Amino acid sequence: MTHPARSRVAQQFAACAAVAALAIPTAACAPKSPDFQSILTTTSTTSVAPTTTEKPEPIWSYLASVGVAGKQVEPSELTDLSVSLPTPPGWSTYTNENITPETAMISKGDDYPTAMLMVFMLRGEFDIAEAIKHGNADAQLSKNFNQLDASTADFNGFPSAMVEGSYDLAGKRLHSFNRIVIATSAPPANQRYLIQLTVTSLATEAYSQSDDIEAIIAGFSVSANH
Fold first, then answer.
1. Residue 66: CB partners within 8 Å, gap ≥ 6?
2. Is 43 a residue whose pLDDT tops 60?
3. Residue 1 maps to a domain
4. Is 152 a member of any domain?
5. Would you say residue 51 lies in a domain?
6. Is 18 within a domain?
7. Region label for 12, one of left (φ > 0), alpha (ψ between -120 and 50) or beta (otherwise)
8. What is the DSSP string of 116-162?
9. Model pTM?
10. What range defines the domain where residue 146 resides?
């Protein structure tokens, strides 16, 4: 199986924004394969977002453009935040040479469905409310993306963007759930993090795998340690 193992946030934000705090992505850091994956049952190939001719700007691009750099860290090594990735029965840790060591990823067997968790420590000041507006852009730019649901409501008290939908990748129709959370640790550090949960299933298996997938989504949590 060919996993879209590293999302654009990981590929581009880590590769480009982390080069320097004031770096702006260049042509060498152009978007690659689409990301933001998950569940639900619609298999339409009609793209419903965006509705305007102007392409949305991905969050990694926005953050880099305002001088924010990100360093990926292992979720298990966080001391100022607690981030959960539930593991349903029958799921196990998934490893792949295309996945950064700091990425936490699980799968059911050697194929879809999968769940991926990434955490980035952010450096640089930015408008969180503005950044969240860009949280779903990558999904909306995916091939034949059909949006099923989206929200910019807070998650566990932190600013967040969520999108669910289906899209085409490498000859397969995938269903996706993606949530981005911008969390801030407790004072006095007030360290900001970008956290991304991505859950992916094949469109043809979205219904049969829905219990496990919904358990992961419902069990995912982010909280500041005091």
1. 124, 126, 127
2. no
3. no
4. yes
5. yes
6. yes
7. alpha
8. EEEEEEEES---HHHHHTTTTHHHHTSTT-EEEEEE---BTTB-EEE
9. 0.79
10. 8-224
- Least Cα distance to 9 among 139, 147, 124 occurs for 139
Q: How many structural domains is the chain composed of?
A: 1
Would you state the structure tokens that stand for residue 120, as one six-digit string?
A: 């980035």
pLDDT digits (tens, 9 = 90+) for 177-186: 999 999 999 9
Lowest-confidence pick of 14-23, 74-83, 122-131, 199-208: 14-23
Q: The domain that contains 175 carries what CATH number?
A: 3.40.1000.10
Considering only residues 220 and 26, tell me which one the structure prediction assigns the higher pLDDT: 220
Block residue for tokens 């566990």: 156
Look at the chain and count its residues.
226
Q: What is the DSSP string of 181-199?
A: EEEEPSTTT--EEEEEEEE
pLDDT digits (tens, 9 = 90+) for 51-109: 555 788 999 999 999 999 999 999 999 999 999 999 999 999 998 888 899 999 999 98
